[in-house]
Every structure is written in C-alpha cells, then in structure tokens.
Amino acid sequence: MNAAPPERLFDRIQHSSAAAVVHAGGLVIRDGGCEVWEQDFLNLDLSGKRWPIVQIRVGYELIYDCPQPTPMMLVLNIHYTRASDLAVPDHVVIDPSIPIAVYRDSFGNWCSRIVAPKGRTRITSTAVINDSGEPEVVATSAQQHSIQDLPEEALVFLLASRYCDTEKFLQIAWNMFGQTPTGWGRVQAICDFVHDRIAFGYEHASATRTAWETFNERRGVCRDFAHLAIALCRCMNIPARYCTGYLGDIGIPPPYGPMDFAAWFEAYLGGRWYTFDPRNNVPRIGRVLMARGRDAIDVAISTTFGANTLVSFKVWTDEVQAA
Questions:
Q1: If you classify domain 147-298 with CATH, what class do you get?
Q2: Among residues 50, 69, 81, 105, which is most buried (max CB within 10 A)?
Q3: For the segment 252-265, what is each residue's pLDDT rounded down to a tens digit?
Q4: Domain parsing of the chain, residue ranges
C-alpha cells in the first residue's frame, strides 16, 4: 500500500472499490492484493502505523418512579455502526422484568419501547467496546459540496429543526462566516466561535433551549453547543447532524467532571461525515456513538408518555485497564 496521511483504514475502505469477503473468523478486505482482517480496522492506517487498541467500559443506570403504567420510548443502545467493536454487548436490562420491543427509527438508530409499571423501574446496561485509541480524524482539506452535488440523504440536515432554528441566523451567519475558507475551515471557524461564546455549566441545562436562545443567553451544556453549531452550519449550506453517545476522559488530564451522555455533531464534507465537538473543540479519543438525528428531539434517551420522576441517573465511560 502507498503511504497516506494518518487515516483509519476502515474509513478509506468504506469509500473505495475494495472487495469485501465474509469469513467465519471476520471480514477480510482485499485491496491491491493485501488482506486485512477485521480486528486490524481499528489500529492500522494506510501508512502502516499501528495504533494501540483500547477497551472502554460504558453503561448507565436510570431509575424512574411512575405513579401509573407509563409508555416509554428509549434510545439507549450503541449505534449499529459500532456493533462489530463490541466485546461485551450492550443489552438493556430492566427491573422489574417487563417486555421490550425493539425497532430502528428513520435515522437508523436502535430504539426500544416499554410500558414502565407503577412504582420504580430500573433500566441499566454495561458494555465493553474496542477502540483504536486514536484521536479523531482532522481533514483540513475536506471541501464543501455545492447543494446540487449533495446526496439526497444529506439534504434533510440542511433544514431547520426543533432546536436548530436556522431562520433566525441566516444574516448573522453569513455576516460572521461568509468570508471564512469554505469546507473544513468554515466548520472549524463555527466551532471556535461557539466554543468561545458559550459558557458551559450543568446548572445551565434546559430541556427547551433552542440554538437562538443559546446564542443570546451565551450559556448551556454540550447539546446547546451542538445545536448552535449545527444551526450555523446549515445556514452556510453545510449539512450537519446531531449526535449523542459516550465520551470519557481518555487522554485528558484531571480534574474530571461528572460523567454524562455527551452531544456533538457531524458535518458532511468531502463526500463523508466528520465529527466536530464545539464543547471540547479538540480531537478526542474513545467517542462512542449511540444515535444521530436532526437535533436532540430525535435522539432523546427517553421519551415518556405520562407523569414520572427520574430518581437516579448514572453514566460511566472508563478505559479497561490491562490485567
């Protein structure tokens, strides 16, 4: 193979004409006479450099108290694109034991439906996932597409949505970012602006805050950072979609804050989706995707149809230390 800038081999293969053959032991990619086994996807880039594989234990515990039987929709599973990385599957366990119906939503996310009984219901899961240990891809040469050249599935991510009220930003966005370099540089300029403008704090959390309100209040949590950046990208004709999942502290010096589900976004540039995180604004290690959508309304961890109290909420994301 020819040398190339550090890029995960799996990412390149997804957009190549390489032949894929399924064997009992895993997936083999044949590219120019070279066979690469599935376990190598995560730790071999095209320059031949191997990154260390790490294992991450992720999970949650949610306890609800319902005064009567209450239907719920849950988005709590790891995204199907990471299924082959799971060393220990992320089974949803509910106490007391009740039926669970599963389905895929219109964005491809794994979802569950339950009817929580009267009283307390504990919902929990623990999984172990393999990760490259590699920082996220930075592709400064990735270019913006003309709208007419975008794939149809990206077009919905140009439109306004519940929390990304783009119609209020159009003139502001073009005034601020119209002269920035197109493509990666423009998205990064938006992330820099959001990161610098918004003060992070869990005390600022609000279930109803829109991007416009975040822009004016200048405070929020990670979902607010993502919503504002998404709205600005869409105003600049860059498809942007909301993401949620796990993000631990691998490679980050202490002190560490309380663990929670994280929010970020992906922008469509150069023929693929790239991860951007205006809250942290640096490439991170060990991000685990759970769900994608237009904004947080599409990927809420739980949507309840009736009165309830969230009694306890715990999330964990820890690197598994070698024995």
A1: alpha beta
A2: 105
A3: 888 788 899 999 99
A4: 9-51, 55-132+302-319, 147-298
